Amino acid sequence: MIDFTSFQKLSYGLYLICSEHNGTKSGYAGNTGFQVTSSPQTIAISCNKDNFTCGIIEKSRKFSLSVLQLELDVSIIGDFGFKSTRDIDKFEKYSYKTGKLGIPVITDSCTAIFECKVINQVDCGTHILFIGEIEVAEKINDQPPLTYDYYHSHYKMLAPKNAPTYVDPEKLSGGRTYSTTPETTNSDYVCIICGYTYDPEVGEPSQGIPPGTPFEELPEDFECPVCKAAKEYFREA
Ligand code: FE
Description:
Blueprint: E1 15-21, E2 24-30, E3 33-38, E4 41-48, H1 52-60, E5 62-68, H2 75-82, H3 90-93, E6 96-98, E7 104-106, E8 110-124, E9 127-139, H4 148-153, H5 169-172, E10 189-191, E11 197-198, E12 234-236
Antiparallel strand pairs: 1-2, 1-5, 3-4, 4-9, 5-8, 6-7, 8-9, 10-11, 10-12
Bound molecules: fe (iii) ion (FE).
Fe (iii) ion binds next to loops.
């Protein structure tokens, strides 16, 4: 028996993982980053083979890992976690530096950064586990790191489909399906792309939407603040 809600008790942080090969910069948001050994100092990441960045790391043999800070504008997670480098330039919007290894290292909204050379990799089916030896480790600020639990509970977001921790939302809700009937006026609405929840009691201050605004009264050009999906991608929770 597999109780999918048990997986939510596993604890993680949230990271931006980047690399570059032949001038092509790439990056994604992921929760699977952890120190493997202290001598030598190594970090492992689990990267979905469908991620554009996975192919870049396989070629460049190096990656950077930036630790997201607790309080941030969630659009950085939306851009890195729910959009592909194939479609948008993630490095245009957010501050980064070119690290010692010659790869991009995001510093925007991050509390620490690491640069690693890949010393080993394990094929895990859908994912590749890259083990990197740390060449650079640097603290950026004194902010606490973002935890995966806080990401779920505070920002009310789900894991992207490519995450090793992705669980079909229906498996978590016992087969609940989202209704499309627009009758109720005070319900939460969920973005089916990224899992962000619009709560009418809270509104969406980042888009000038005051508390107490029902979903139906949102302007037609309202976008998911996380993944920028249009209103039509929302379903009643
Ligand atoms: Fe979204």
